[in-house]
Amino acid sequence: MSDDEDRLEAKGEYWDFEVDAGLPDSITEDDEEDDSYQIRLEEAAGKVKWSYSTGGLGGSAPTVVGGTVVAGGDGDSIYAVNAKTGEEQWVFETDDFVESAPTVVDGRVVVGSDDGHVYAIDADTGSQQWAFRTARFIESSPTIAGNAVFVGGGDGYVYSLHAGMGKERWAVGTDGPIYASPTVTNSTVYIGSDDGHVYALSAASGEQRWAFETGGPVRSSPTVAGDTVFIGSGDGTLYALDAKWGDKQWEFATGDAINSSPTVAEGSVFVGSDDGALYAIDAASGDRQWSFETDSRVWSSPTVASGTVYVGSNDGYVYAISTTTGQRDWMFDAEDWVDTAPVVVNETVYVTSDDGTIYALGAGVRGSSTDSRVNLGTLSHHGGWAGGG
After folding, report:
1. What single-letter DSSP state applies at residue 176?
2. How far apart are CA 191 and CA 53, in angstroms?
3. Of 204, 223, 231, 314, which has the fewest beta carbons less than 10 angstroms from its beta carbon?
4. 304 and 325 in contact (C-beta within 8 Å)?
């Protein structure tokens, strides 16, 4: 077994989590004691701090690390902008759309493109470090664990690449294209495929540990909390699976396909459905706690910060909803679909709309995203996650 494999197999179940101290607008101890600070937060809730146009339609969920927002766009490029001001820092061009959300670890941006490549880009300069070519599009968002990059391909393969060089470590085929993003924890890669299965693979070797069959394509990305994998399917069902063996613990049916990726926070699973609702489900029992109705499909993957869940809808709005009551705190009109995953960093919500605009909005609460999806680096993340496994 190689040194890389040894490190992957040695990864534990948990790792330390703390928000990147280099991010903008961190609250201070004085702010904690200042009631006027909370008032200012509430007044800024849902208001635009800045917006940046990528110049094309669509795009990816944003990732925010070290004071920089990085996101893909259908202008065939990856964009890096200042998290505090929205000022452009660099643009990296590919040969097709970029729907894949970037992962940023150790000064390296790793992202896929519909041109079939996985790219590694210097986070400071925007210069290419390496490119790995596959047979079809890459809309899956890469995840990094140790010195390995994991990503799904439109050619139906799950790839493990060397993070520093971009060389293939292993590739495992499925029977359908892969849009879902992998989650890597406990030395295991969890990922869904359009062949209707959820797979658990050894992070070191790619060996299949288990596969669970659903009744539809799996474009939802899995999240893991404790000993359970949560994932949605095109059959309209959210599944809770035993992380080690793949046995079903419970299932929850919505009214349509689930393309949103679930997240777990405060003992609840939050997930959107094509039936237009965001659901809060008890993570232990699978019982519905509440649902919040929007006016269109919810493809966006929610995030949670300080008792508020944030999600977009294809009705063109970003919603902030109480995690306990399911009541709306505020909503923002983005004037186009919001099908990407938001992330909250130090009182600011970052999200991309389908007209190619990256928004920075007042969150209305203190702190940053602390849900399972962001903490595991799935789809998008902030500087509190620096690669796990």
Report:
1. S
2. 31
3. 314
4. no
